[in-house]
Amino acid sequence: MQTNFTAEQLADSATRESNTILRTCVHCGFCTATCPTFQLLGDELDSPRGRIYLIKDMLESGRPATEEVVRHVDRCLSCLSCMTTCPSGVNYMHLVDHARHYIEQTYQRPFGERLLRRVLAMVLPKPGRFRLVLRGAALARPFTALLPAGTFRTRVRAMLKLAPKRLPAPDPMQDAQTHRAIGEKRGRVALLTGCAQQVLNPGINAATIRLLTRMGIEVVIPRGQGCCGALTHHMGQAGQAMDSARANLRAWSREMEKGGLDAVVINASGCGTTVKDYGFMFRDEKPKWKDKAEQVAALAMDITEVLARFNYAPTRPAPGLTVAYHSACSLQHGQKITALPKQLLARAGFTVKEPAEGHLCCGSAGTYNLMQPEIAGQLKERKLANLNRTGAQLVAAGNIGCLTQLGDGALPTAHTVELLDWMAGGPEPAAIAQARHAT
User: Fewer beta carbons within 10 angstroms: which end of the chain, N or C?
Assistant: First the structure.
């Protein structure tokens, strides 16, 4: 693709990077075949290729983002399926992230949307605030009918629908501390406990800690760590995202200096994709931060990568259950981890099936199901239908967003690590009892 940026524009690092990405695109259109929004809407501007043209024109012109550009970029899930499909290696992730930041700087959104985005950025990355808001959701549900009809009410209803009717109690295992290895110590890792996950399903972190410590791995929950920054990063709020990342870099660097780390373990794949990209995010920072970011990005591992590295092995007999494996976009497209979770589930004794259209997003995508509930709802129903057709008894996935999105379907859902922990001596996940009851 030919570009026409000025020398002054190319002096900016983000624009220079986007220019390189744009020049990689050869207009082939392979990405349209695997783009969820293009599959649903059939609009070229709601495909990666169409968005690339819009972004190119916006950045080259230097003008403020228009409503048209914002509308189509906002509809992008950042599922990154296009990057898996692209034969030219176009880094669409970095391009659309730059576009979102540019939009945030130059476009004035309607008041209701600005308010909603601000609330999400203030609440979701903070577990205490998030828990408080979820407790109030039950009280708020009857009053949504009083809101004026329109996009704002639709989004509020989507949020309240996703809010669990029963909130799990906080788990002290997630507090800052060190969980000692059981038996001979084989390694030492830091665990990112996340923000929304530790409120919505603290059992995922508990299962991770139990399983790793039984495998002889010391698990540190560092003091001072928090949200990885993904939620605000994908809303174009680069400053807040970088602040979150810096807090994590400080926390993990202290642990590296104190006792060394074999890995920074992440069991929410959306977070993992972002942490593994810290090196790029901090590329223009001072060496103090740049070096730390590159070191952490190299240490970041999905929980399934850690389990494979330390030779996970089950201790229970095969359960005789069939699992439909839902491959989270951030895992299969963002981190290129596809076979490993299925191999571990099979090693644990499960029969593993894959749904049709496994490359398509379920519609969760961070805050997407809150900001674009209609499109997210269509993708959800499509995904649930494909999962049900597998004939499986339950669904396994490696991302809290997907589990929340699909959790009210016909099949019970569980995080992959919860199933692997059970088969290696941990407690039975609630999804197993539900699956057996259904059959």
Answer: C
